[in-house]
Every structure is written in structure tokens, then in C-alpha cells.
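Researcher: We're reviewing a set of sequences before deciding which ones to prioritize for further study. For each one, I'd like a predicted 3D structure that I can look through quickly. This is Pyrroline-5-carboxylate reductase. If possible, include the structure in C-alpha cell form so it fits the rest of the review sheet.
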Amino acid sequence: MDKRIGFIGAGQMAEALARAFIAQGVCRAEQIFATDVVGERKEVFRSFNTKPVDSNTEVVKSADAIFIAVKPQYVSVVLREVRPHLEDRHTVVSIAAGVTLQSLKDAAGEGVRLVRVMPNTPCLVGETAAAMCLGGKADDSDADLVRRLFEAVGKIYRVDEKLLSAVTGLSGSGPAYVFVMIEALADGGVRAGLPRDIAQQLAAQTVLGSAKMVLETGKHPGALKDMVTSPAGTTIAGVHELEKAGVRAAFINAVYSATQRADELAKLGA
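Model: Here's the predicted structure for Pyrroline-5-carboxylate reductase, in C-alpha cell form for your review sheet.
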């Protein structure tokens, strides 16, 4: 890729993205520029041969694709600071939760290519489930650029902005739901007599393997569940307990409740 990548904010998510871009051959280390108010974070970026710089403006002048990776309350401040230096060549990518395209446009100005991305924390291990929407002057070329970048750390889908709260409720908050499930499965294993370390590894690997089956077979999760549940067997006995406890409804409600909260926060930040 001939694009230079900039990060305003060099936290863990930015680091994970930068390392993945280099590891996957998307760009070279010397094509990545970053800055952060915390000096130690710039030194982390220096340690894998990228180019830390001293100001937000330097990032903008040095890069073509600019990731806004600061806390949501600072996004508008940062964009207003660099606004005079934004040009048509720039694609501005915000990964801040709850900051709308309109807020980005108000801060960055008219005529800026804007892409809002909702990643999730598995980005840190190269397995993000993300979604993006376009604003300002962004077009399909910007979408293709962002897709290529995020495919280095997982999967990304293009949606209308009105659906980003649902993305937040599902994949943004979803890792927490899965961690709760893994913890509970491991507790069940311990209750049945397994050592804690083995129970946790079995639970996590079971979730990983099951997710890969859904993604790689393309089969409906219900069909895959039916493959495991033989008549009068152990699995259907366990599934029956899950249904009695309302686990399915609890997951649906969790996603919906988180979506509603994301909508509320987006309105507060608009």
C-alpha cells in the first residue's frame, strides 16, 4: 500500500492495528506515524520501527489515512486542532465509540473524507469484528482502504450509521458476554470435578472451535447445534437446562439493552 498511516492517540488499540498492518504486509513500519500525550506510548511505537512524532499536526502532515484513536471526549478537540491541515488526500478514520459522523463533520469541517469505525477488543489478538460507515466526502475508495486495513486484524462490514448502535450492542459489547460464558462454562467444569486451569482452557477452546465452525461451514448455528444433540443424549439434557434458564432470551436482551444504551450515549455526544 502506498498510503501513509497516522495515529492520533497511540494506545493499545492503535498499537494492535499498527503492528497488524506491518505483520500482514499492508504497509511498512516507516509508513506509520503516531503521537500521544503519554511519552511512553510513543516509545512503544518507536520500538517496532514506526515514526512517533511530537504533535497531532505532524501526524496529519505526514500521513494520508489518519486514525483518531483518542478518548471520545477529545475527538472534537483534536479534529478542530488539525482542521486547517486536512486536505482532500486525507481519509479520517474515527474509532471512538459514540461520536457521530455529524460530530466529526462539525469538528473537521466540510469536504473531509470521514469514516466511522466500531471495532472491538479482539482487535488486540487480530480477530476484530468491526463495522464502518461513511460520511463527509468519503466514497467507495475510502471504504476499500479501510476494509483493507481492518482485514489485517479480522473482519469489517459496511453499514448505515443508524445501525452502529446495534453493532456496538452485539460485537462491541459482545466479548464481555462471551467472557462471562467462558467463565461460567469453566465453573461448570470445576463443579463437575475438573481442575480450574484445564476447565478454563477447555471452555475457551470450545468457544473458539465452535465459532470457527460457524464461520467456515456457513451453516446455521441451529443446524450445527442439532449435529451435537443426539436423541436422549448428554447435550440435549444440557440444552434443556439452558432453555429453562432463559439463556437464549438473556443474550438477546443483553444485545438489545446495550444497543439502546449506545443510542443514548450517541445522542448525548451529538
